Amino acid sequence: MTKYLSPQYEDVKPLLAAVDCIIFGVQDNKLKLLIFKREVEPLAGCLSLLGSFVKIEESVEEAAERILFELTGLKDIYMEQLHCYGAVDRDPGGRVIAIAYWSLIRVDQNHLEFNVRTHEAKWISIDRIPELVLDHRQMVEMAISNLREKARFRPIGFELMPEEFTLGQLLKVYEAIFGHPIDDRNFRKKLLNSGLLIPLPKKDKSTSRKGSFLFKFNQETYQKLLLEGYSFGF
Known about the structure:
The protein is of the alpha+beta class and 234 residues long.
C-alpha cells in the first residue's frame, strides 16, 4: 500500500526519540545520582545516565516508566519530565532527540528487587559527578536545580523516606537535597504545623537509648499539597 506523504515532509529526514533518566537518591546524608557504564556504541564503556529509545507503540512517559521499571522492578516511582534536548550534533550516533526525566528513589528501597545486573551502576555524590557522555552533565545540573525548586514548594522529599521515620531523618534528607544545613527548630515547627505528619506511638531507638518518636506522612495532605503547593521555607 502506498502511503501519502505531504510535499512539505518530503525533505524531512527520519530521527529517533530517546528518554534519559536522571535518578536521585539520598545515601549517607548526601544527595546522589545513579550512573551507569554505557553498553552500546557510540561511547561504549563511558559513564552515562540510563536511557532508551522510545518504542513505536509507547508514549514518551511510558518509555520513562519502562526504563525505571526494568532497572528497579518498581512502579509508581516519583518522576518529572525535565526538558527536551535536541541539538543537531548532540549524539554522534545519529539524529536523536532526548527527553529527560528525573526521579526519586530510596537507595535502600526494595533493595532485593533493585536490578542492576545488566549494568555497571553506582551511586555518585552530586558534588563528585565524573565526566558523562553527550549532554548528560547538562541534564543532571538542570535536574538538580529543578529538584531543589520543587522541594521548596512541594512535599517531594517524602518520596525519599521509608514508611516510618523520625523528624531527624527527614531533616537530613532535606539538607541533602539543598546541600546546606537547615535550622532544626524551624524545620520541626514548620513540618509539625503542615498537617503532613501523623505521629506514631513508638520510637526509633537505633541511634540512642532515649529514642526519637516516629511519624508517617498523611497521604491525603500529601496529595493535596503536591497539587496546590506549600512554602516550606527551606
